[in-house]
Design a protein that fits this description.
The structure holds two protein chains of two kinds. By secondary structure, chain A is an alpha/beta fold. Helix content of chain A is 39%, strand content 9%. Chain A has helices at 6-19, 95-107, 124-141, 158-167, 180-186, 192-210, 240-254, 281-296, 301-306, 319-326, 340-343, 351-361, 368-375, 401-415, and strands at 54-55, 61-62, 64-68, 113-117, 147-151, 170-172, 227-233, 258-263, 333-334, 385-386. Chain B has three domains: 2-150, no CATH class; 154-220, no CATH class; 227-283, no CATH class. Classes of the chains: A alpha/beta, B alpha/beta.
Amino acid sequence: MDTNTLPIRLRGKLAILADAAKYDASCSSSAAERRDSRGGRGIGSTEGHGICHSYAPDGRCISLLKVLLTNFCTYDCLYCVNRSSSNVPRARFSVDEVVELTLAFYARNYIEGLFLSSGIIRDADYTMEQIVEVARRLREVHDFRGYIHLKTIPEADGDLLLRAGRYADRLSINVELARASSLAALAPQKRADGIQRSMAAIRTARDAGQDRSRAGSSAPRFASAGQSTQMIVGADAADDGELLACSRQLYDDHDLKRVYYSAFSPIPDASRALPLEPVDAVREHRLYQADWLMRFYGFGVDEIVAGGENGMLDTALDPKLAWALKHRDRFPVDVNTAEREVLLRVPGLGSRGVQRVIASRAVAALRLEDLKRIAGSVTRMKPFVIARDWTPGVRLDAPGLRSQLLGKRAQLDLFG
Amino acid sequence: MRRVELAHPADASGWRDVARRLLGQGVRPESVTWTARHDTESGRGGSPCDDAARAAGPADGFAHDLFAGGGGEPCVGTGPPVHAPRVPAAFVELAERVACNRSAQRFALLYRVLWRLQHGEPRLLDNAADADVHTLHRWGKAVSRDRHKMHAFVRFRATPGVPEPHYSAWFEPDHRIERLAAGFFCRRFTTMRFSIVTPDLSLHWDTERLRFGAGGSREALCRDDGMEALWCEYFANIFNPSRLKLDAMRAEMPVKYWKNLPEAPLIARLTRDAGPRSASMVAAEATVAPRFARAAGLSDAALSLQSRPPAADDPA
């Protein structure tokens, strides 16, 4: 390997294979086991929290070298930039080229590690073997201890999946579409049941890897940062309720760490079977907010969806505020006495804010000014809470509350 | 009025030693003036790789070792050893960060909060609504953020053309976080020789020990070995022109850092071209599927042959 010629050799391929990888939203490098390069032969560490080493003008974090091994693909998934029927330029990295590139970028502190995916060449097993081989060489030949995320191919052999999990911190399989019928129509070579089976296999292997309770248990660590998936928003007619219900099922059944939502956006040489116009990015944003409410705030899918209309979230308001406006009988909440679960439902109060409220009120009863210090702002919270020196009075019943909050939101967006 | 001079601007351990003495002597916060000497060239050795373990602190929530033992010669006063006051473990870690803040009042505020913790307000830190605690957290948070950005935005250059290159970087932090941030780099790049230079201090790692030296200037940085161009190629191509969100980018990667980021000069062009590129994707005519699509399962050699580099501004 000659690192000096790397820029010249790989520039053209990198351009194609990074461009081909950008439609995967995830760039997370968090939640891996803690380790570092002390006592090792190579470089690399993971210290729990991921690091975004740069941000693209699309506002997205650049944490990993996110590339495809190749964007040649025998599959013809209509929503995908790399589908076989597209005329985008094609390229292929060798296994060693990806290894070199990862190490060179990592040593310069550009990245936290590698997120490797691939188009399907020859067959699923062959492609998956190549992906696993990149990770194996990084770990075993170079003792690389940075972050590795591998996209796994559900149609590949189960043994390959298990090998991938031994080298990777995170594995992911994209569910792509919440409706199995849409997947069948748009991605003829993919099968929803196969995706679910692979996710279940990853969970089983993870659970075994984490089980240290039995004496002599020697199950190897397996994908310590868990598995994630991605859903395309707006490529079919599925509403927000269906997307969130699908996520709920994936979190429950396969213990997923994250579901990413990717608003369908124009791709080069797009299929005419799909909408060409971009999906409103706000819809994607609201889905992420709803996802958090589901995972960290104790909201059920039905409750969240009820905040909007006809299965779609309210795009004008965040889903917690939308829910609160439709459940005004549950407010105002006294911040000095309310239970944690109740506080979590107060608009404008995050989970850390709730923690601080509970710790602070044990010392002294909270006033509005204190809430401002704790939460940063009380604009959204004010109509919904009682503090020592504050009651919202009749405001909660005011029919104009929604538009009043909307007005404030608009101003915040303008100047914030 | 007592005047205390600490060894360097982020001298958290020096502050601890002095504060313990002052507390033992019952010296009130309002009668101490805190200053710190500038950094000198005399290196302060030692491996910082264990700072994560130290920051984690004891598990029971109360630190026994913050003010107990250690510390060498007392900087202020003499007299019998003072009992070690108990403080919340969170305070130890917070103090380490606040000591790095550039605010002139950092040591005074730390001492005042320490004083209050020992004088009838043992749970003071829980009260995020208290003005002193609020300021302490704000200053600590500013340091955490600065440290995080240093971990993120330091860009090493390798001395070109040598088998075992020396890596060097120039960084301009807001606060005096060099020592606090150093351990991360030593743990991550243990087998690399590297230097990180800031205007106030420089760090030098030789694969075993960390040395501190004088601050420097950007001009001392070696030239790039070509890898920055490759990184820029990646940056330009991972960007999705259909999703321009400049505010989100600037919020996380403030403009003040751009001058030291090799990819930042691309931002203007990528932003300018984003609209037209996105529009052309929507407007493009449907194309005929390439031949290999109809003959799925081509040999790898044949597939590789079709690879071609993109034109400089090819939206694909």
